[in-house]
Write a structure and sequence with these properties.
The longest helix has 33 residues, at 5-37. It contains four helices and no strands. The protein is globular, with a radius of gyration of 15 Å. Helix content is 88%, strand content 0%. The chain is mainly alpha-helical.
Length: 113
């Protein structure tokens, strides 16, 4: 990782944008699942709980991955996975594929946290 105040500022800015995008995506996802696929609050809650379960193990694994392969490389991989997953989610119409892409997106998020 490059040293210096400007490189650290860039990473902090990227993390701030990431935090905003993550909150925006989650606010959108549950409305989308209800409006597009007719999901109830119970189904959205189950999706949220399942996401939390996946997040636990993905975060633990991503930390070990970052220690082994480098933090900057892990950030790049995480942001690439997130961007590609969001692109795919915008182009994919089915509920099952949206849930699968949420799992992949979660793996990417864990590489950026």
């Amino acid at each position: 990782m490059p040293n210096g105040p400007s490189s650290k500022s860039g990473f902090f800015l990227l993390e701030a944008i990431n935090a905003f995008a993550t909150a925006f995506y989650f606010n959108f996802l549950f409305f989308h699942m209800g409006a597009q696929f007719g999901w109830t609050d119970r189904e959205n809650f189950a999706l949220s709980a399942a996401h939390g379960f996946v997040y636990i193990f993905a975060a633990l694994s991503a930390g070990k991955f970052a220690q082994r392969f480098g933090y900057v490389r892990t950030l790049r991989i995480g942001f690439a996975v997130m961007a590609l997953t969001m692109l795919a989610a915008g182009l994919t119409p089915g509920a099952v594929s949206q849930v699968a892409l949420l799992v992949v997106w979660t793996l990417g998020v864990c590489c950026t946290s």
